[in-house]
Design brief:
15 helices, alpha/beta, 2 domains, eight-stranded mixed β-sheet, Protein-Tyrosine Phosphatase, Chain A, 17 strands, folate biosynthesis, UDP-N-acetylmuramoyl-L-alanine:D-glutamate ligase, 431 residues, 38% helix, single chain
Length: 431
């Protein structure tokens, strides 16, 4: 076990619950650390159900293409915890990460603190200590009581599409979940809101206007669409004719447009050339990512394709299914799904968008995850939903089974935890 893993294991034992949404524990800890959350560069705070990471990836690419230094806070990580914290453009180094975690651990002095709370406190320390022009800050869950919601004066707030997810913590309707996401709105900040269902839109609009914020809504105040393979964006400032996003899928045109709108509305120093270069350079691992090399890829024949996506809810699955249909128009290929899921998701809901598309579903128990669905259960539920499905012992045996389908298009999906395991086994972790 590495030193980082040993520290993180100790921190995980400080609170019996993995998730306990509250600000009552984090604020005293931050005060004892000198309130690093009050000494951050301008913050862009991002909440939503899906597309948070992609939207942040575009914003980071736009700003870095414009010569700016950017901090980023994302979760969860795929392979190494370091991926969660990017300091002025680079992933935090292990020695510096360990020192920060151990300092927070010492100051906390064994008080109950969730893993996300204490590691976020360490991240805020690192962000405050390192000079940068902006911080792109992703919520962990929800918004109102999310640990990141201690930032009192963000430059701007982005709400990506809201859908049903984490209902046990956020509520069982779109309106309730949107209300939780709206908790990151702050008086004096600007807000940009992605495409929403009607009930979510109404809640977000009311919450913003109560604080004197007039938000920009995607599809109303700004538009982005795919035209002749390019991204055409328009708002009240004018029209931009831009190259397509580097990230694959029709939904990425929406995500990129949301990031462009935020950059323009928040007054970020990005020119049209900066947008164009950023769109070409944006990277976000395990989101319709092709695996073209590595030992796992080599288990498939030369005519096959191997794709990886961390989709874990119905909304994300629908976007990926659309991307796969577009791929099939360009090159028809039999689709094989390799799927593992956490037990907070139901297989039928995630599989539904792939009805009539998938030749077979090969199911896995996610390695090392005690809260993962068993492969047998996923296969059983897939068969009930009308799919041909088989349980597999490992991703290796699943890929060998998929190799029996000539020229297959294979998608490994269902969880970011599974995606991280695949990247590690394939020797292609994020940078």
């Amino acid at each position: 076990m590495s030193r980082t893993d040993a520290i993180l294991k100790r921190l995980s034992a400080l609170h019996p619950k993995l998730i306990d949404l509250s600000l009552d524990r984090i604020l005293p800890l931050l005060a004892a650390l000198g309130d690093p959350h009050e000494r951050l560069p301008p913050v862009i705070h991002v909440a939503g159900t899906n597309a948070k990471g992609s939207t942040i990836a575009y914003l980071r690419a736009f700003l870095e293409a414009s010569g700016k230094r950017v901090h980023v806070y994302n979760s969860p990580h795929l392979v190494r915890f370091n991926e969660r914290i990017r300091l002025a453009g680079k992933l935090v180094g292990t020695r510096r990460l360990n020192a920060s975690l151990e300092k927070v651990e010492a100051v906390n002095a064994q008080r109950p603190m969730t893993f996300f709370e204490i590691t976020t406190a360490a991240a805020f320390m690192l962000f405050a200590e390192t000079e940068a022009d902006y911080l792109l800050l992703e919520t962990g869950m929800g918004g109102t009581y999310d640990t990141t919601n201690v930032v009192r004066r963000p430059l701007g707030v982005i709400i990506t599409p809201v859908d049903l997810d984490h209902q046990a913590f956020l509520g069982n309707t779109i309106a309730k979940i949107a209300g939780e996401k709206a908790g990151i709105f702050k008086r004096g900040s600007k807000a940009v809101i992605g495409i929403q269902q009607d009930e979510g839109r109404a809640v977000l609009d009311r919450a913003a206007r109560r604080l004197g914020i007039v938000p920009l809504f995607q599809g109303e105040d700004f538009h982005g669409s795919q035209q002749d393979g390019r991204l055409v964006y328009q708002d009240e400032q004018g029209l931009l004719d831009l190259p397509p996003p580097a990230l694959l899928g029709a939904h990425q045109f929406d995500n990129a447009a949301l990031a462009i709108a935020a950059a323009r509305h928040f007054g970020l120093p990005v020119s049209e050339d900066g947008f164009a270069r950023g769109l070409r350079q944006a990277s976000w691992p395990a989101r319709m990512t092709p695996l073209q090399t590595g030992p796992l890829r080599n288990l498939l024949g030369p005519g096959a394709e191997l794709w990886l996506d961390g989709i874990h809810n119905a909304h994300g699955a629908a976007a990926v299914a659309t991307a796969l249909r577009d791929l099939d128009k360009a090159r028809p290929a039999p689709l094989v799904l390799i799927m593992g899921l956490m037990n907070t998701r139901e297989p039928a809901a995630v599989l539904a968008p792939f009805a009539g598309m998938a030749k077979e579903v090969l199911t896995l128990t996610i390695p090392g995850e005690t809260n993962a669905h068993k492969a047998d259960y996923i296969a059983q539920e897939a068969r009930k939903a009308g799919f041909k499905a088989r349980r597999m012992r490992s991703v290796v045996t699943a890929l060998r089974a998929a190799a029996d389908v000539p020229n297959a298009r294979v998608l490994i999906c269902g969880s970011l935890y599974l995606a991280g395991d695949v990247l590690a086994r394939n020797g292609t972790p994020p940078d």
